[in-house]
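Anyone else keep sequences and C-alpha cells together like this?

Example one:
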Amino acid sequence: MEALLSLAFDNIASKDTQKIRKGMRQIEGMLAQICLSNGKSKPSTPQHRRNASAINLGEQQAQSPKKLGALAEDPAFREFFRLQEGFEWNVSTRVADCLERLLGMTSNGQNDLLILSALSNLQGLLLLHPPSRTIFGREIYMNILLDLLDPYNCPAIQSSALLVLVTALLATPQNTRTFESMDGLLTVTSLFKDEETTQNVKLKLLEFLYFYLMPEAPTSPASASNSGVGLQRSPSKLASAFDRRSSVASSDDGGGAARKDIRTQEDKQHMLAKYLSNVEALVQDLQETAPFTNVAC
C-alpha cells in the first residue's frame, strides 16, 4: 500500500493535469478496494478473453459495499487506517493540498473535473478515517472549502464542497468553531441568498444549515460505536488509534478543551440569525422533522 500511495502522491503533486487525474484515480481505486466486497465471479472462458476489460468492468459494477462491521476486520482497511495515523502517509492532507493548487490554476472544464474528483476522494477519506477531519481545524484547510463555495465556482463544485464540509464538521466541534471564526456562516448564507445560485445548490445549503443547527456533543470511539456512528465492534488497535488522535486534538486537561468547543443550539441559532432572518423557523422544522436522527454533530 505504501508503494501505491507514494506513486499517487507523486502524481497529485504534479502540475501536469494528466498526472493529477491519474493520481486521483489511483486513490479512488484504493478506496474502492477497501470498501467493496470481493464478490466471486465465474472465470471467463478462453473465447471471452479478448473481452476481458468488459468482463472486469461488469464484475466491478456487481461488487457490493462491505458492511461497516466487516470493514473493521478487513486487513486492507487496518493497514490503511494505520498508515493514516502518520503525517507521511495521510492521504487527506495530500488531497487537500492538491485542491489548493487546483484552485490556483486556470479555471476550465478539465480543472473543474479534477476538483470534483479530489472532493469525492476527500469525502471518502474523511468517512473512512475520521481522525483526519482534524486537519480542517486549521484555517489553511478550512479556507479551501470556503473558497470552493464562492459564486464563481460551478454548481457541481459548490454541491460537492458542501458535502465535504459536512463530513469535515461531523462530530468535530473544534472544526465548527474554525468554520465560524472564518466567516463560514457569512459564506454559506451569502451563497444561499445569491439570486444566481441554482435551486439544487440552495437545497443543499438549506440541508447544511439544518446540520449546523443540530445540537453538538463530543464523541469518543466507544460512544461513537454505541450510537451507531463510526466503527461497530472496533478492534482495540483501531480504538487506540482514535484515542491517540483525540489526545492530540484536546489539551492536557483530559478533554476539557474539547468540551469548551461545544456551543448550544441556541448559541448557534443566535449566530446564524446575524445573517439569516428565518432561523427560528428552521429550528422549529428541525425539531419537528428530526432529519439527522442518530447523527452526532
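And example two:
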Amino acid sequence: MTFYYPVAVGGPVTKIVDGMVAEFEKAHPDVKVEAVYSGSYQDTIAKILTAVKGGSAPNVAVALSTDMYTLIDEDAVLPFDEAAGADAKAWFASFYPGFMANSQTGGKTWGIPFQRSTIVLYWNKEAFKEAGLDPEKAPATWTEMREMAAKLTKRDANGNVTRWGVEIPSSGFPYWLFQGLTTPNGVELMNAAGNKVAFDKPEVVEALQYWVDLSVKDKVHPTGIVEWGTTPKDFLEGKTAMMWQTTGNLTNVRTNAKFPFGVAMLPANKRRGSPTGGGNFYMFKGSNPDQQKAVVEFVKWMTTPERAAQWSIATGYVAVSPAAFETPAMKAYIAEFPAAAVARDQLAHAVAELSTHENQRVAKALNDNLQAALTLAKTPAQAMKDAQAEADRILKPYP
C-alpha cells in the first residue's frame, strides 16, 4: 500500500517514520508499505488531490485534520467506521475527544489522530529572572502577558529592541495562532457542520485588537508579520523572551535551548483554551478490501499507546490517547520533563482547529485579513468584516 507522509525528505522525522514502517512490515510480512515523503502539509494535500483526480490516490496518508471537509467534498476518502469492524466504536473512543472533534462529521469517522498538537507558550526563565519576574511563573492572563512582556522587552542605548517580550507568529498558520486568542476570549470561529463562520463577532474583533496592540500600543511584540519558521530561532537566540508555538516544537527547543525554559498553557481572558492542530490518517477510495484492511491494521499499529508515546517523546507532538500517557515510557518521560504534560492538560480546554468546506479558501480569507490588520492596512473591525463577507460568499453553496 502507498502511504503519503508530510515531510520534506531527510532529517530526523523521516528516520523515525522509516523505522516505524520497517517495524510494521516485520510484524506484518504480508503487507508492503511504500512511504512517500510529500513535502509540507500544503504540498501533501495538493499531491493527494492531483493523485485522486488522476486515479492513483494513495491508500493512506497523513494530512491536516482540517483537510477533512475538502477530502470529503472531493469524494476522495473512505470513513474508517466500516473497515475498522466490530471494535470501531471502542477504537475511536480511545482517543482524546479534543482530537476527535476534527476527525468526525455526519456521524462518521474520517480521520484518525496521529501527529496532533496544541499551541503553548514557551518562556525563557533566565530572561524572566533578569527582568525581576518569577522565573517559575508564566503569564496566566492576557493582562499578565502584556505586563510581563513590557518588563521583558529590552532596548539598547539608541532605543532599538534587542529582545522582544513576546512573539506570536502571523505567517504560515495565522488563523491557528489567532484561535489561541479567540478561544480564550470565549468564541469559536466556525460551527460543527463547517458551513458557517463567526469572524466578525465583537469577541473576535477584540482578540485581534489585543494582538495588534501588543506591537502598536504596548511595543512589546515585533510590528508587521512575524515569521512562523523564525520564531523558534528568535526564542533560542534570546531575541524574544516568550513565544507562542506548536507543541510539535517541544523536542527542538529542549534539544537546542542553552537556557532553562518553561512551557505553559496559553493565557486566559474569559477562559483557558487553544485550538488543536496537526495531522490525521485518512484512507482513500480506490483501495480494494484487502488494502482497506491493511490500512486499518497499519493505522491501529501506528497509534497504539506504546507507539503514540514513542512518537510523542521523539517529536514533541501530543500523544493522542489517554492510554499512551499511562505507558511506562511516557510516565518516565513526564517525570523527567514535566513540560511534556502541559499540552495534554490543555486538551481539556481545547477546541477544533478552523475547518470548513472549501477550507483553504476560507482560511486564506481570514489569514489575509489578519495580516492586513497586523500590518495596519485595515482596522481589526474592518478586517474581520471583510473576512466574514468573503467566507460567507465561499460557503454559500453549503447551506
